[in-house]
Amino acid sequence: MAVSTGKLATEAVNPATxxxxxxxxxxxxxxxxxxxxxxxxxxxxxxxxxxxxIDEIVARFAKGGRLFYIGAGTSxxxxxxxxxxxxxxxxxxxxxxxxxxAGGDSALRTSSEKSEDSREEGAHDxxxxxxxxxxxxxxxxxxxxxxxxxxxxxxxxxxxxFTIGLSxxxxxxxxxxxxxxxxxATGAEVVTGSTRMKAxxxxxxxxxxxxxxxMIRMGHVYGNLMVNVQPTNEKLVDRAQRIIAAATxxxxxxxxxxxxxxxxxxxxxxxxxxxxxxxxxEEKLAAGKGxxxxxxxxxx
Length: 300
Description:
Layout: H1 25-36, H2 39-44, H3 47-61, E1 67-71, H4 73-90, E2 97-101, H5 119-127, E3 136-140, H6 147-158, E4 162-166, H7 173-177, E5 180-182, H8 198-217, H9 234-248, H10 252-262, H11 265-274, H12 278-287, H13 292-297
Parallel strand pairs: 1-2, 1-3, 3-4, 4-5
Helix pairs in contact: 3-8, 4-8, 5-6, 9-10, 9-11, 10-11, 11-12
């Protein structure tokens, strides 16, 4: 039986903002900001579940698996955004993390509400990606009841892929259907039912944690440095040089020389820290499976 949207926490009327239209612009923004401050606590409460999700993602990446975000509307757009930012940030293949939105890419710009009502379309869109048992599917739906997402999760479970349900309604159908539920309870929105606000913010925070945490566990970050960055334009060349200098305490001039010689940040750091040639540094990285910290600890 379908859940009435009127009974969902994300659709409830927020008494704190009941008169928001009568306030001055300043007071209106104070109220919105006050509501936004509750989001971080809701996400923090879900850290144990987010941590388990990251460990599952990393384990399946090691087996050749992929992470799929799938959602409709704001939820779908946030998934596509997070997926799109992984290759330039961490230099991973574009198919490692993929975002799927109901209605296809055109729905990124133009709302496609009807697309979210089909369970079959959710399953179909995953079928088109050749889903396997090594993959992870993270269904995203603020309400936890979107048919498109529920259909995708049901199909993923049938394929033995690991499933995560990210919603903002505890006990939702999505939370019950997925193997692992991540449910930051953000409550009633500033504007009733406008889940692009607090629920959307919570979703973005969780997605940031999932991919950033997974990439850190995979060795794509050294300390807090983005060592997998690819120097493909002037801004990124400058960033790469600054990362090398920070990691090795060398001068900016030496960092520029190392980057030019090494062709990558990780190789440059190993060259400087272990005083190796480029070829030997590449061997060290290969022995450490691309993990810079492991490569620097390998002294044979």
